[in-house]
Amino acid sequence: MFRLFSLSGFAAIAAAALGACSDSTSPPTAALTAVSPAPAATAVATSTTITLTFDHPMMAGMEQYIDLHQGGVTGPTVPMNCAWSPDQTTLTCTPSNPLAPGTQHTIHLGGGMTDDHGGMTDLDQWTTMGGQWCTAGMIGGTHDGHPTGMMGGGWRHGSYYGMLFTFTTA
Fold first, then answer.
1. With the CA atoms of 88, 115, 123 and 168 taken in that order, what torsion angle do they form, in degrees rounded to the nearest 10?
2. In terms of pTM, does the model score above 0.70?
3. What pLDDT, in 10s, does the model give residues 111-134?
């Protein structure tokens, strides 16, 4: 016994099958869902930790693309130790020493950070969270004493050198 399908029924089945295939081959794009301390926060404790939360796992090693600067992005970097949660969605960075009191600090996230499938992070979404694009002009040609050309792909996203989030300690 043969069963005839209408052309519209066949098209619906084909569209569903193709949609399922395209969803499985397209890597998701990681989104940053939380930053702590909150961008533009004031009176932050000098003993604070930096916490970044993503909506799905990030690739191992992406912690190398976060810096904490005393002052603006051209200020000295603050030594810190960073570790991922077991599911690779939360990065917690602890400064080696208490932060300078009454001082602005800048979290600098590399624009080329990737998730565990190699997908780039969605930096456009980060600006709605209080982030600011980092341009070459803001860096002044160097980053942590090294030429910006030596920063590597993990710092760049198009013509930008990542995203900046600031806070001020108490």
1. 20
2. yes
3. 888 899 988 887 777 778 888 988
How many whole angstroms separate alpha carbon 25 and alpha carbon 138?
37
How far apart CA 59 and CA 143 sit, in angstroms, is: 23
Q: Which two tokens stand for residue 128?
A: 């709605």
User: Is-contact 124 32, C-beta < 8 A?
Assistant: no
DSSP 103: -
> What amino acid is encoded at 150 in this protein?
M
Complete DSSP assignment for 22-86: HHHHSPPPP-EEEEESPTTEEEE-TT--EEEEESSPBPTTGGGGEEEEESSTTSPBPPEEEEE-T
